[in-house]
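Data deposition worksheet. Section B asks for the primary sequence of the deposited chain exactly as it was used as input, without tags or linkers unless they were present during the calculation. Section C holds the resulting structure in token form. Section D is free text for depositor observations; keep each observation to a single sentence. Incomplete worksheets are returned to the depositor.
Section A, Depositor: J.P.
Section B:
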Amino acid sequence: CINFTNEKLQQFFMDALIKREKAEYAREGIEFGHIEYPDNSAQVQLIDDRKGGLFAILDDECRAPKGSDSHYVQRLHDAFAASKPELYAKPKLGRGAVDADVGADGQKLQFVVKHYAEDVQYTAFSWLEKNRGRLNAGQAELLATSESPLLQNIAPASAGGEAEAAPRRGGAAQKQPTVSGTFRASLNSLAATMLATHQHFI
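Section C:
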């Protein structure tokens, strides 16, 4: 999530600093030379695309009955390794590889995202479990029986610590938000607020 946040902040900075200034100069009739700047919108799209980005595939795999970390990584390889080699890569394997000490099983969970700043190799160990964000039954019970009203409202006590999905009209259960979905919504809300302000950079 931190690297995605960095990508979004870089995108915001480029938009605020260069794209808007170019538009302002054009409106005021000020002549200026061509300004080259790095555009990381492809990286943001790779990660955040609602239908086929890294997070969307992760959320989809979390909801699949037999979803697994290894299947998630294989889906990423299938979707991006050949079609987006400028943004995504399979890791180099073998003894000299980065994180070679994770073993053969761990290496099956690795993938590389070519971020704006540099390439980052990820190991998707327990990503599905973490992304579901479920509390175990003991944790949920502890929060629900706390004397603090705030803690009581964080997670209702339920079997397995999983809050029951609220039924929609028609009886179908509503999807529970994932950790990545909640994080993205929060980050996008922050970005919208920042775009609505007049920025000053030093």
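Section D:
The two ends are 26 Å apart (CA to CA).
Residues 157-168 have pLDDT under 50 and may be disordered.
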